[in-house]
Amino acid sequence: MDFSKIKKPTLLLDESKCRKNIRIMAGKASSSGTIFRPHFKTHQSAEIGKWFRDEGVDSITVSSVTMAKYFAGAGWNNITIAFPVNLREIEDIAKLAESISLNILISDYEQVSFLKMRILNNAGYFIKIDTGYNRSGIEWNEKVQILRILDEMNYNSSIRFSGFLTHSGHTYKAGSTKHITDIYNDTLLKFAPLRALSADKIILSAGDTPSCSIMHDFKGFDEMRPGNFVFYDLTQYFLGSCRLDNIALTVACPVVEKNNRRQEIIIYGGGVHLSKESVRINDGRIIFGKAGLYDESGWVQVSDNDFLRSLSQEHGIISASEELFNSVNTGDIVGIIPVHSCMTADLLRQYHTYDNRVMSDFSPK
Amino acid sequence: MDFSKIKKPTLLLDESKCRKNIRIMAGKASSSGTIFRPHFKTHQSAEIGKWFRDEGVDSITVSSVTMAKYFAGAGWNNITIAFPVNLREIEDIAKLAESISLNILISDYEQVSFLKMRILNNAGYFIKIDTGYNRSGIEWNEKVQILRILDEMNYNSSIRFSGFLTHSGHTYKAGSTKHITDIYNDTLLKFAPLRALSADKIILSAGDTPSCSIMHDFKGFDEMRPGNFVFYDLTQYFLGSCRLDNIALTVACPVVEKNNRRQEIIIYGGGVHLSKESVRINDGRIIFGKAGLYDESGWVQVSDNDFLRSLSQEHGIISASEELFNSVNTGDIVGIIPVHSCMTADLLRQYHTYDNRVMSDFSPK
After folding, report:
1. Whole-angstrom Cα distance, residue A288 to residue A231?
2. Model pLDDT for residues A173-204, shown as the tens digit of each residue
3. Cα(A101)–Cα(B75) distance, integer angstroms
4. What is the average pLDDT score of chain A?
């Protein structure tokens, strides 16, 4: 990586770490006999999509109709939009279903009266099940409601039932890997009986990154849809989903000022680059990223005492160890390991690889 | 506003409220005999810039070299980059100083040894003073350090001293308007004696939005640089800087699901649209926006019981009053008043006005 050319906050992607993350997850799904349908909302990049293709992936997940159109345009022809169906985009959905194998999500009975009247070119639908995250979906034990949806949708022969889909996002609040394992097992326990609600061969789809990273086997589920693992980040690190050196994404930021009195380093790199996502670390402090220097391999060497304590729109304030503080000068580059790589990638929308390629093709919003 | 065309999270701008916010602030600066140099980082829009021009504004503030180049391209020829000088962009700065009247910021002695050797085409520099915010700058009482900078920079005849600049961002943590007034007065008290450090006629520049909104008179300061007031937002509302109906920016979001059990409304509108900025309200809850229905004037009618309790990448979860919950259907549009309009505008980068214009010209990052 040629750091001399970096003038502004720049998203650096370690291709080999990223490809390794993809390979490990694809391998785990494969050895479990589980469909791997990775969530592309994390990277939103047609070029990174190709790295998944290299590992044999042919079906993907996205979180918006816009993203589905973008990846369909990049050659993906089997896409699940894992987001409650947006009735206002039904024309776009119908059009997309003409050209690719598309799955949408029914998460609420109110959507059914609208959808059962629409011609949807043999699209598939999943019923979104809430197994404890409390964000979206029908509660796992509301069988009457689920059967009512299946029954009503049965009148529409232009759309077929694909299965049940859940996202156990409450793993992100877990206090330990044991807790993540418990949530994974609890999800399976609540989810598995749903299979009996349909006579057809259906798919049980799950797969948050913490669960998928910690579990060694996905048996019981038919499909896994993790997304964040492609890059990982500090949130995943503190959850125990990855090691620090599995993280494939960092932000290179110019040092613009040093404050001796507070032993702080001020960088060009703020909320519009890194996002305002924060994570609470063990000692109770809220941090916005870890900070350090790039070594020759392009990795950021961090200690527990070097972290972003605050972000404004363009400023980041690093609370620095004496060691980092003394080895950095104004005008140097420091590396930031982001708290939430999905948000950081969405803000910077351009990946710089270590062989100096710039990948700017990114899904529109 | 034609809401029928809205399919995705859409940034709506009430031009008349926005123009009124500009007019009031310009008038206050004018009657105080203070230069009004508004911060354009909030809107980042050449077209909104023209509305300032209509109120007689001819000098502006930005927070990056990129933004300075963007607004210079839009015809602004008097720009202060109120961000610690980024030595890695010195070529761009020098080039820009050839065509416009440019001010940069020295916030640290380390920058001086570099800057005193550069030809900067009669650019101006401010010394950034920290009057209590603890983000950036030389502490107000470090006179020896300040005199040392003035002395060294004196050797460079291609750059002139413009004055002292501060940003009392600690007003954003104030618990009351009385507290904001106290910070304003404290800033003036610490700042005013600096005038004696230079024999030249210099500028004392300040101006955070909370102070500028609450104070009626800016006497003592020569220049004010508020930014956020152009739109205002929930943060300013809770600080007491504005009324709710002064807020010029809302985000129109499709309702994609309703959850009866939790009385929650799920919208298409998440962290990539609104940002993850939150604000703690009186009862201790953390909220990510206020939610309600648009009335005929385009304003969002909100109650204290309708707010965004959580945001994911694309989902927003509204904790709803019975009234809002019952009057909204899946497929409808709800309005969100954002917590931090600067971040929300930066994410959506496109303003839709109530006369159905789309203003997409936006500063690159």
Report:
1. 17
2. 999 999 999 999 999 999 999 999 999 999 99
3. 50
4. 96
With H, G, I as helix, E, B as strand and everything else as coil, classify residue A96. Answer: helix
pLDDT band for position A226 (50/70/90)? Answer: very high
CB-based contact, A111 to chain B, within 8 Å? yes
- pLDDT surpasses 90 at A221: yes
pLDDT for res B146? 97
Check if the beta carbon of residue A8 is closer than 8 Å to that of residue A350. Answer: no
Cα–Cα distance measured from residue B61 to residue B102, given in angstroms and rounded to the nearest whole number: 10
Distance between A7 CA and the closest CA of chain B, angstroms = 5
C-alpha to C-alpha distance for B303 and A310, rounded to whole angstroms:
31
Reported ipTM: the value is: 0.97
Q: Is A280 exposed, middle or buried (0-12, 13-18, 19+ CB in 10 A)?
A: exposed
Residue burial A71-100, b: 16+ Cβ < 10 Å; e: rest: bbebebebbbbbbbbbbbbbeebbebbeeb
pLDDT band at A282 (very low <50, low <70, confident <90, very high): confident
pLDDT exceeds cutoff 90 at A2: no
DSSP SS3 for B152: helix
Per residue in A283-310, pLDDT (tens digit) is 899 999 999 999 988 899 999 999 999 9
- The whole-angstrom separation of Cα A231 and Cα A244 is 11
What residues pair up with A251 in beta bridges, in sequence order?
A: A11, A336
pLDDT at B1 over 90: no
- Both tokens of B173, joined, read 């943590």
- pLDDT (tens digit, 9 = 90+) per residue, B233-267? 999 999 999 999 999 999 999 999 999 999 999 99
Which pLDDT belongs to residue B307? 97
Q: Which amino acid is present at B55?
A: E
DSSP string spanning B7-72? Answer: -S-EEEE-HHHHHHHHHHHHHHHHHHT-EE--BTTTT--HHHHHHHHTTT---EEESSHHHHHHHH
Q: Do B88 and A313 touch (CB under 8 A)?
A: no
Compute CA B318 distance to the chain's CA centroid, rounded to the nearest angstrom: 26
Q: Where are the alpha helices (DSSP H) in B129-194?
A: 143-153, 177-191
Task: For B228, name the nearest residue in chain A, comparing CA atoms only.
Answer: A313
Q: Taking the alpha carbons of B46, B50, B55, B56 in that order, is the dihedral positive or negative?
A: positive
Residue from B226, B222, B162, B164 nearest B190 by CA:
B164
Pairing of strands A223-224, A249-259: unpaired
Of B66, B89, B110, the CB nearest to A258: B110
Give Cα separations from A253 to A292, A325, B199 (angstroms): 10, 15, 37
Say which residue the tokens 């209509």 belong to.
B54
Q: Which of A314, A338, A355 is nearest to A252 (CA)?
A: A338
In the predicted structure, residue B344 carries a pLDDT above the cut 90? yes
Secondary structure class of B363 (helix, strand, coil): coil
Dist. CA A289–CA A278, nearest whole Å: 7
pLDDT score of A1 more than 90: no
Question: Which residues of chain B are within 8 Å of residue A258 when distances are taken between CB atoms?
Answer: 108, 110
CA contacts within 13 A on the Cβ side of B34: 26
Cα gap A293→A299, rounded to integer Å: 8
Q: Is A174 on the interface with B (CB under 8 A)?
A: no
Which residues are CB-contacts of B320 (< 8 A; sequence separation ≥ 6)?
A: B263, B264, B265, B291, B305, B306, B328
Q: Which of A168, A275, A274 is nearest to A226 (CA)?
A: A168
